[in-house]
Protein 1
Amino acid sequence: MLSNKITDYPLIHGLMRVQNLSAEDLEKLINYELKEGIEVLDTADIYGRGKSEELIGAILKKNPSLRGKIYIQTKVGIVKGDEPRYDFSYEYIKKGVEASLERLNCQYVDMLILHRPDALMEPEEVGRAINELYDEGKIRHFGVSNMNPYQMELIASAVKLPIEVNQLQFGLMHTGLIDAGLKVNNHMEEAISYDLGTLDYCRLHHITPQAWSPFIVGFFEDSFVDNPKYLELNKELEILALKNGVSKHAVAVAWILRHPAHFQVVYGSMNEQHIADILVARNVKLSKEEWYRLYRAAGHVII
Ligand SMILES: NC(=O)c1ccc[n+]([C@@H]2O[C@H](COP(=O)([O-])OP(=O)(O)OC[C@H]3O[C@@H](n4cnc5c(N)ncnc54)[C@H](OP(=O)(O)O)[C@@H]3O)[C@@H](O)[C@H]2O)c1
């Protein structure tokens, strides 16, 4: 029986990297993850240009009883192709979600996420689309991604469902959500807030942050784990990995889970052994000293 409480799921499998994946491969991974207590799948209309949702749809067609065992979240709002843009219009959201449901072979998604803010968004249009999708039973929960507090307020003013999650990039080498809060009122680069206090806002409004690309540096650059460019960080990860009998990846995930905002971590590996290495993060509880040691090893100065 799936829980309705999003914080019951600390780890989420993200299905963005689907280029070389078959439905059989994904089915094996999902069955393995279900045995390990991982029930949430994160996808989007644009992942693999629809292939990510189609793979889930093919698996559900073969095993309809799986639908009640997995929590599916998908996203809408980014337009790829010759004219890339964002689109939160009523028509785009409604038709986009209906097309996702077709590909997913589902009557509903558990969570719909607005993928990236549209500068031209009209909250009333967003509200009309989301409220109708909810009334029609096509979405059960609602969230956003890559949004700051004012954008969330704007959307919340017109949508009757609460914003339950905000998916944001966060990891040891992408710490913008916390840097400025540690350097308030100082004239240094890390004191500049690039997100207007998004993490504090999420905590105050009981919005669960979901950390995407937890091992990635910058915007889709490289993984920092075992990367010779980040020797100091890897040295600390190794010490804590040995201490806890887990992988460095697990320690990097445990670092995110240790934050009291109750992050969910969205990992993207499609390799069963790599996933096994990540899942044990749930058993690792870092001390405050260890948490700050890793933050410093990632290149941050504590003033
Ligand atoms: N909302 C948004 O705007 C947004 C944007 C981007 C991503 N996302 C979500 O976030 C998810 C994760 O993103 P991501 O795939 O970029 O992030 P990720 O989980 O940080 O990592 C990806 C890389 O780390 C490697 N890796 C992971 N675990 C490993 C292990 N134990 N050992 C060795 N290598 C390991 C993976 O290689 P292998 O594949 O070889 O294991 C992969 O190349 C996506 O699937 C998507 O759902 C959301």
Protein 2
Amino acid sequence: MLDVGAGTGIATRQLLAHGASVTAVEPGRNVLARAAERTPGLRAVLADGAVLPIRDSTVDLICFAQSWHWLDAASRTPEAHRVLVDGGRWAAWWSHARADADAWFNDCWSIVERACPGTHRGQRDIDWGATVGDSSGFDLHDRIAVPWQREVSVDGWITEQASHSHIALLPEPDRLRLLDQLRAVIDEAFPDGTMSVHYETWLWIAVKA
Ligand SMILES: C[S@@+](CC[C@H](N)C(=O)[O-])C[C@H]1O[C@@H](n2cnc3c(N)ncnc32)[C@H](O)[C@@H]1O
């Protein structure tokens, strides 16, 4: 199988642990080097997931752990279709915090939406399965939502927020101001420095027709 947009290999290692034969595909040289360091014996390819250096009809499963949205929208579906065997599967998933019932969470989103034009909380609800539906040569097979609770330190949460591209790409003063505002909200909501946050992972699976 292919783990496309493997990043530092978080999903790759879990797939390997489940006994899959995995090739990691990732266009970022530095993160792929990190994945290789952390994953002994990793089979990895430095490539764009929408231009795969992989032969036709050779892959049983192609998966995208929080990466499908980065690929070129016109070429990603035909490219995934090309490399899969007949009956092979496409899977994509995203994990998002969904603590929408909590005031601190909505305050944080409001801060991010004000500072990052084009980014909004509704983007968590995109139906990614629809991008491989209809005349794409795939049949949508399943949509699964898995709720879970994440325990994370306030520092860990802030570090992760800072790594999101809509924040990381802000001009330095705007980025620092935004992170200060987020920290003020979170420090008040979690004075002991640890957070427990409701998450959901949404997974779509499609089968090559
Ligand atoms: C949010 S990270 C997910 C990393 C990893 N799969 C995980 O879940 O931790 C998105 C990854 O997609 C990669 N990416 C961006 N554009 C891509 C493309 N055109 N083809 C394949 N991967 C891409 C990024 O370099 C990044 O590693």
Protein 3
Amino acid sequence: MAHKNIMGSEVEKGYKCKPVVKDPNRPIMHYKTQLFICDGGRCHKVAKDQFADKLREIVKGLDLQSGENRIKITRTMCFGACRFKQVGQFVENSQRNGFEINSNIWFKNAHKISDEKWRKIFMAISKNQDIKVFVEQIEMEEA
Ligand code: FES
């Protein structure tokens, strides 16, 4: 029996969610939360190369790369907030899941956040717990 992804599409052998039939009208793959990480020139200079890939590995380690609580990591260009480099923003897929609690949360110095703190943040996101307290703690530690 063919494996199907969360969108109900048959999945290519060896993949978890890659559909066999690529429908250009299909909506973007489900995600619960999207994390935009700035990879513009100034942020890229302070962060290590492949920072977004490191975060993706952490998300994978928590098994949050697919499924209902999928966290999607997306690199973006300059947010226009370079003095806070490296900048990031969480956005909830609220049109789909109705959750607003962690939408539009900005944070700075993303590259200084330890892997352990990222794990805590991602787990809190997946449980729909308010992460503002984590972000405030991080900013106080960095001040
Ligand atoms: S380069 Fe990241 S905010 Fe400008």
